[in-house]
Structures are given as C-alpha cells and as structure tokens.
Amino acid sequence: MPVALLALAVAAFGIGTTEFVMMGLLPEVADDLGTSVPTAGHLVSAYAIGVVIGAPLLTAAGVRVPRRRMLVALMALFTVGNLASALAPGFGTLLAGRVLAGLPHGAFFGVGAVVAAQLVAPERRARAVATMFLGLTVANIVGVPAGTALGQQLGWRATFLVVTAIGLLAMLALYALVPRLPLTRGGGLGGEVRALADRQVLLGLLTAVFGFAGVFAVYSYLAKMTTELTGLSATAVTGVLALFGIGMTLGALAAGPLTDRALRPTLYGSLAALAALLLVFRYTVHSTVPALVTVTLIGAVGFMTTTPLQMLVMNNARSAPTLASASNHSAFNLANAGGAWLGGAAIAAGWGWDSPMLVGAVLAAVGLVLALLGGALDRDGSRLSRVVARSRRTTERSDISVG
Of 49, 187, 263, 312, most Cβ neighbours within 10 A? Predict the structure, then answer.
C-alpha cells in the first residue's frame, strides 16, 4: 500500500479521537465550566452539526482545489477548531470550537477516500479506502480511552491540546507524503451536484442513514446498558468501549478485500448480520462473556458497512465523486444523531434499557431493504442497457444490409 495512506490514517486518527472523546469528558467539562452534564452533551451534537453542514459546503467550495492542498487546508481548519476548543474561556466559545472542528470532517473523508482510491489499482480501491478508515477505528481503541484518561488527570483542555498536535503532525504528513494528483475529469460544481442527484447515490446515502443509525441506537447507551443489565462496574465501561473499537478495526480490515471482491453482497451481509446481532444482544446482554462477544461483533459488522457504502456512492457518482463521497459522512452523522435520538426515545417511553436493541435492529433492517432496492434497480438498469445495446447493434446491421 502507498505510504500516503499512512498520512490519511494519521489524520483519521485525530478526527476520530476528537469526535468521540468528548463523550468520556462530559463530567470534567461540565464541572469546569459550571454547567450540567446534559447541557454539556450539546458539545457532542455541535460537532455532528459541523460535520453535516461542512461536508457539502467545504467540498463544493474546494471542488477546483488540488487534492493535496485541499486535504492540508481541511486539516488546518480541524487543528484550529481543536485549539479553539482547548483555549475556550466559556461554554459558548467551546460550543463554537466544536462546530469549527467538525466542519472539515466530512469533506476530509470525502476527498481522502477519492485520493486513496486514486493511489492504487482499481481492484484494490476498497482496501485503500478501508486503510484510511483504520485510523478512525484505532482512535476508538487508543485515542479515545487515552484522551479520556488524560483529560481526567490533567484536565479536558490537555486532551484537545494533544489532538491539536496530532492535527499539526497530520498536516505535515499529508504535505510530505500525498503526491500531486490531477483533479477528476468532468469535475466542477455542476458535475458534482448532478452526480449527487443520481438515484443510486441518493439510495446509498439513505442506506447509510438508516443502516448506521442501527449501530448508534445501541452504542450511544452502551455504557448504561452494560452497568444496568450486564452488571459491570462503571470502571469496566472503558474496556467495553475498547472491545467495540477492536470490533470496528476487525470490520474495517475485513471490509476492504470483501468489498473489492463483491461490493453489494458485502453490504447486504453486513446489514443483515447487524440486524440479527442487535436482536441477539437483547438476550446476551444479561451475561458478561456473551455480552462482550456480542459487543465486539456488533462493532465489527457495523463498521463493515462503511467501506461498501463509501465505494457505492463513489462508484455511482462516476466522474464527479467528491461531493457524494463527502455527503456520505453527513449521512453517517445524521445516522449517529438519529439513532441516538430514537434509542433514547424508546428508553424515555419506559420500554427498558434493552429497547434500543430492537430500535437498532429495525433501523438496520430498513437499511438492508434500501440496499436491496438499490441492487434491484442496478440490475434493471444493466438489463435495460444491454437491451438498448443489442437494439442498436441490430439497427446498425440492418442499415448495412440496406446499404
């Protein structure tokens, strides 16, 4: 694999750390800034809002900017956002810093996925994209637990200063290791918007919203589930989250070669397995070892959906894939927010701490139906293309005979 993928993975590690570490630092932030933990929870949503807004806007603004320069600029904005968060004097400025740090997230992964795919042979494109995403999964194993521990010992600001340093390192690595790449032919904002409006691209984005929401309907409440239903101590929750991160990494490793070999079957299989495992978790959550095994497997199959979904929208966007690729990360963050909201609504309705598993299974099943619909339309489109091609050949032969 090209060494430039390492630079993309380092940047992904920093992005993944800053996205998820806030969940572990909410008590420290709330105490330091004199607010409640639920109010501090808006800092998680602020980052997601930044992602959803920034992905299409920054991608559109940089559609004519050379890829390497765009990646470095996006990482610079990410670094400034984290520095602003670390130095924020109050809750309002910290909220603004979180939005600023989230703005380049989707655009970076959108452009980064296109760059990763350009660096390798066509038959290894999914593996290259999955390698970039490995940085995101390793962040959940190393970056988030380490950042949480650092914040608890030295204060939450220290965590964001370290992430700022990672951002600077990533900027240097991107500039030094990513080669100059030509812009995609047929690009331009008009071409990107037309590609985004493709029926299959929109179906892919909807699949991401519903399918991945199934993961976050459960993940958002995993700490409380394992203490209330499994009987684990609060200190063991970090280990549970690390197991989920290990599962994510295993899923990313498997997704690359599987997607290169058979994209749609990989997507169908991972969504079906996700729906089934979320249902199984409702029963295994009451026993420690089965619960921990199920958590790891949910992390694996949940993240296994990301690479085929990324490749699906890029392939269907054809010659102008960047905006569609970036919008896919907006879809993932809508899934995060929507899954967490629906899982929380089920708990608030009095259905119990195991109710988010049912919600998640239904959402994953809806994602599977949408993916199957996209596959059926793909087959119909291919069949129609073959019929039209045969008709044209027949017409050409008739013209030759008449002539």
Answer: 312
